[in-house]
TrEMBL record:
Protein family membership: Belongs to the FAD-binding monooxygenase family.
UniProt keyword annotation of NADP present: yes
InterPro entries recorded: FAD-binding_Monooxygenases, FAD/NAD-bd_sf
Protein name: Unannotated protein
Organism in which the protein naturally occurs: freshwater metagenome
Cofactor: FAD
Length: 105
């Protein structure tokens, strides 16, 4: 799930973060990384919390955007609405802590 932001600035920041992550993997002789299940659940909860009060998680929003237009489909918020600064701060925190949310091989 990406961030809801103006694309040129956030793409530059995300590409830089990804490049740093790939460099980290190479420096540590790793070729694979997966996000752990707990980290996935935590991030999804953070994304949902950031969307509280928006139209995307309103009970009467039956949009293709959140899956509400398909009966029985889980409704999810596909994008982080907490702002680019908070999104990148979280990404930098992951990097500073050695990408601890990832299972790296």
């Amino acid at each position: 799930m990406g961030v809801l932001a103006n694309y040129p600035p956030h793409i530059e920041l995300q590409v830089g973060w990804i490049a740093d992550f790939l460099e980290y993997l190479a420096e540590h002789g790793s070729t694979r990384a997966e996000v752990g299940a707990d980290a996935q659940d935590q991030w999804c909860a953070e994304v949902e919390a950031a969307a509280v009060g928006t139209m995307f998680n309103a009970p009467n929003c039956h949009s293709w955007y959140n899956g509400g237009n398909i009966e029985g489909k889980a409704r999810v918020i596909p994008i982080y609405m907490g702002g680019l600064d908070r999104f990148m701060a979280r990404a930098q925190e992951l990097a500073a802590n050695g990408y601890e949310s990832y299972v790296i091989r």
